[in-house]
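Example (one chain per record):
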Amino acid sequence: MQAANGTQFPSHTKTAWRALPAGIWALGFGSLFMDTSSELIHSLLPAFMVTTLGASMVTVGIIEGVAEATAAIMKVFSGALSDYLGKRKLLMILGYGLAAFSKPVFPLATSVGWVFTARFIDRIGKGIRGAPRDALVADITPPQMRGAAYGLRQALDSVGALLGPLLAVALMFWFANNIRMVMWIAVVPAFIAVALLLIYVREPEHRSGPATSPLTVADARRLPLRYWIVVLLGAVFTLARFSEAFLVLRARDVGLGLGYVPFVLIVMNLLYAGAAYPAGVAADHVSHRTLLFLGLVLLIAADGVLAVAASPLVVFAGAALWGLHMACTQGLLSKLVADTAPAARLGSGFGIFNLVSGGALLLASVIAGSLWSVYGAPATFLAGAGFAGVAAIGLLAVSGFLSQSAT
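Predicted structure:
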């Protein structure tokens, strides 16, 4: 395999993980433990709200919508604040801490209001920690290894997303469907995550100076064109990749039993976790355009498989391709943000990117749901393939900008 500049792919990159800073591993395992805790609870939460607390499906939707919107908005403010203060770890720990302290509220909840409060605090925590953490990855990693660093953190994060639902299934069996007891178990990994990050993550001693003023609209407009191209690419990619909830709905649509539906996301995250780090390493050495094109091809294939699926096994195949697409694109997009945003505005850059992508995901999911309601499931996934094709055309148009960010 050749690098973007035509040189041979270095053999030492096969063991690039050994050269990554210890802080990257700590960030990765922090994500793993927190995601294990969160997904363990979230995989049971809808059933808990409906069956135990008597919530309606509309209430569940409102709670989830408000929670995710809150997280997306908070990322902009926390990223900009981390640039201004020059202190990313402080905000990151605050975010993880809020999420950890929200976890005991779920098993203690006696009403939907308690759950709403806990989800709101948890998502505020996610919003606060996201952009400073992603910027800190760039701060402590040599530029030539950023792809590997983001790939490793994303891989470990996906392992947590895989372990959470698996533990939920096993613990529900072990505790005879006692949801509250299982939720209490989920508290433990959340606090382990906070302890890991407190002890093992260090701010770099020699980082570019903090921003001289808080982020303003004028400052955002002065961000380089290459950065905005990456933001636009991220939004278009997200429009082509709507919420994974539609994978679950597709599995139910073809007759998969309710008790087995979580395995759709387990399959997706298994492939995502397994391929994210190798894809991250590749992002440091091969053409960014090539890797993004591969991700789009995988997404088109996933959409095609899901559009024609007539059995649960075919849906599992589509979910596997979906996970491979995520592995090829998500870490690379983070690397591109880190490579194109100014060092003094790195947190702001990640915040804006996440906000725009979050808005695109909401829009994509609304479009997907509308298509599903009017034309059926196949039309939803065929439209996703169409968006991916548009993204491929756009990628050709801006490939020069990607080449510049690789240098």
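Caption: Residues 1-14 have pLDDT under 50 and may be disordered.
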